[in-house]
Specification:
about 280 residues; alpha/beta; Arc Repressor Mutant, subunit A; D-Maltodextrin-Binding Protein, domain 2; seven-stranded mixed sheet; two-stranded antiparallel ribbon; 10 helices; about 40% helix; about 25% strand
């Protein structure tokens, strides 16, 4: 079996269905089905059983999954040892970053990094901070918002305030639709706390979208209010009615963290990227 086969078993176990796996790893469902059939025929056992709720590991499948993890871990460790022996900065840098960071801050950072280290291949995965934290073991470096990752080395990069934006006056008496977007539980908790405390603005929760950029564009068209972090607000948006979210008289802010496993931080490509992040001027972000 190939390493890709072991990785596929782990991905199928993670996403639970062939459809979800195909969507996340960008391979067609028929190709995954065919590859799984080959794996099971090669091993002579059923790795998964198909249920109405998705794929479930068989007892034999649990053994195969454990072996798959060991194989991939061994391969990664070999690769890391070889990289440590090199003097030049090369290899692959695996990053997990929140969607907000990857869209608004990483392009400039990665441009500087790849200019300085052109031999490094970038493997970037984006998602909500909760998703990145859950899969942190898959990345050399994780950049998340909210709380840092327990058990990792964590450095705060910056923090930004939360603001409520609308296209009409926020001093009005009319009830306004609230446009929410998919995010992690901690961000939702902050907004919920603010909603419970404030009594100046009447808000009706009527719309939830998949991304903060979608919420921002819908707000711009006048469909309702939304909450945005200060660091992603363009200059023109500040011209719209807005107010800072406050709790007990204090501005509500979220921190952004870079998190990594100390044992991997001596890899040349990882050390170079962490150094760039920590030396970058985040002032005014």
């Amino acid at each position: 079996m190939k390493l890709e086969d072991y990785k596929l078993i782990m991905q199928l176990n993670q996403y639970h269905t062939i459809r979800a796996t195909a969507r996340n790893i960008l391979i067609s469902q028929p190709a995954i089905t065919q590859r799984l059939k080959y794996i099971e025929e090669y091993l002579g056992v059923d790795v998964f059983i198909r249920t109405s709720k998705g794929l479930v590991l068989t007892p034999a499948g649990e053994t195969v999954l454990k072996h798959a993890r060991a194989m991939l871990s061994s391969e990664t460790e070999l690769h890391n040892q070889l990289l440590r022996s090199k003097e030049t900065v090369s290899g692959t840098l695996s990053l997990g970053a929140s969607s907000l960071i990857s869209q608004h801050h990483l392009p400039y950072i990665l441009q500087k990094y790849t200019t300085a280290s052109p031999d490094v291949k970038i493997d970037l995965v984006t998602g909500t901070s909760a998703e990145i934290k859950q899969a942190a073991g898959d990345y050399h470096v994780s950049i998340v918002r909210g709380e840092p990752i327990k058990g990792y080395v964590n450095h705060a990069l910056f923090k930004d305030a939360l603001y409520l934006f609308d296209t009409v006056s926020l001093n009005g008496t009319a009830e306004r639709p609230f446009i929410e977007f998919k995010t992690d539980a901690e961000y939702q908790r902050l907004v919920e706390e603010w909603m419970l405390q404030q009594n100046k603005i009447k808000i009706r929760r009527t719309m939830k979208v998949d991304h903060f950029e979608t919420a921002k564009q819908l707000m711009r068209t006048g469909l309702g209010v939304t909450v945005l972090p200060e660091s992603i607000v363009e200059e023109e948006l500040w011209k719209l009615p807005h107010l800072p979210l406050q709790l007990n008289g204090r501005s509500m802010k979220r921190r952004t963290w870079v998190c990594f496993n100390k044992e991997l931080s001596d890899l040349p490509q990882v050390a170079a990227f962490i150094k760039l992040l920590l030396n970058h001027s985040w002032e005014g972000v």
